[in-house]
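Posting this for the archive.
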Amino acid sequence: MAQRQSTPPAVLACGEIRTCLLPARQALDIRSAAQLIGLRADERVLLSERPGLYARSPDTLTGVDCPLPSANGARIRAVGTVAAHAALTEGRVLQTSAHCRLPATGPDQRRPWGEYLVRPGVVEPLGKLPYEAVAQGVLAGPRHGDLDVGLIADGLLTRLLRHPLLDQRPPFRSRPTRLRWAALPAGAGEGPSIERFTLAEDELRTVRLRVPEGTADADLAALCDDLALHDWLLTTVVHMLDGLRLGAGAAQDTGAVVRTLRPAVDHLLHLWMPRARVAAELAALWDPLEERPGFTRQWQALVQRIRDQLTLHAIPAPHREVEPAP
């Protein structure tokens, strides 16, 4: 067996997450959730019932040997493994995530595969890593043939969506979202921060972060999973409301309003729990998102609109009696 090798400090971590509604009429119970995302026979699925039902698969590894994305066109070859996992929240929202970290420097020549396998989730450059150009390239999207962790997350999602446990009958229509992230080291004495959070086209979000050196890969991945989950919830509820003509003077079909908004109450409104599974060292990264754009303020306003509309359409219209003609 190859001996574990020491890894130089990482100057960049990156990943991509897919979030979607599970295509099943009924939410999965905890046992079925474990069956769905049991990706490895040698490791158990992590299960939690507090503060809500949550299941997270063990990591799987994908070997890569390809150029890194780069904003300046540099062709930096890198070799290693990308870690991927799946998570299911309340038996209803499915996420797949792929991520890796990149050291500042690597060897000038490719090592034997065994030496990469003992460093899971590390993709090592051949030579020096131009980390700023690579971070920009990751967030802009890889070119054909470049390292693309999103493809790995996509592949895992496709595999899970074909599972025989799923009847392919979701309770309402929704769109999947993608969150692409890159994290660089924070300065000496500085805490974690979000430098930029961007809503892009085609349901894509990009996040650029700074985190203290030594931040655990699992903690960073959990933070980004949490951001992706809550962004998906906001996006999905906004689309529900956008499909209705609300307001004074709008012709309202009570049945259509209830059919459109009731699934939000049944399946989504109780899922809003920012930071519930984020490490204490990274929980402060939610603060700027609560200030601007104000994730929870927007969520609370949407929830109130839904409840107001359901209440309004549950009240029968006043009956006006008409006097018979003399």
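The longest helix spans residues 217-242. The mean pLDDT is 90.
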